[in-house]
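Researcher: Please predict.
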Amino acid sequence: MTEEAAIKKAIESRRSVRAFLDRQVPEHLIKECLRLAAWAPSGANMQPWQIDVLMGKTLKELTTKLFQAAINDRPMQPDYDFYPEKWREPYLSRRRKIGWDLYKSVGIERTDKQKMAEQLAKNYLFFGAPVGVMVTIDRDMGQGSWIDIGIFIQTFMLAAQGFGLGTCAQGAFANYPEIVAQTLDLPENRRIICGIAVGYADNDAPVNQFKTEREQLNQFAKFWY
């Protein structure tokens, strides 16, 4: 396979994995993915990303606390807006489609609010992944550094894909920042951006069977001559 073909395959085959095999990930693979992700570009080479890798006891402790908070309807207190304050087209239709496709894949009817809530709560378990990566940033960083963080996250997930690992970037972890901060003993100036589930994908799981769609190039790109 040519380098061009390998890059194309890695990008197009990457997906959000929501079910993982009960198989441990060698720590050296996680370290290598992070090392490669650190080559992501950043403004003035600030490299604003801060990473906590969770495994074993610490992973269990955090996910248990967060899952209990979610299923007990503990009020969320996110300290940044991940989504728009008011949904509009075409974003509303895209959001609804992926939501219904996801629920359909696991046999949840549109009227079953309880099962929907339970499915959403699985976010806080990293969907059963053996490794959770928490991505944070110092609060005094500007908006440009958030772009840098996004590039880092994508680079990390593509590196993981290259090593045969599945991932899922999850903004849900920012919903309960105080729980995450307390469990990981984060300094007060640290803001939770997202978590990333990492592990070996369970390709037979129904939730991993559906594929998200992408708009055609002419729908989002304009060429000027």
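Model: The domain at 24-84+122-206 is CATH 3.40.109.10 (NADH Oxidase).
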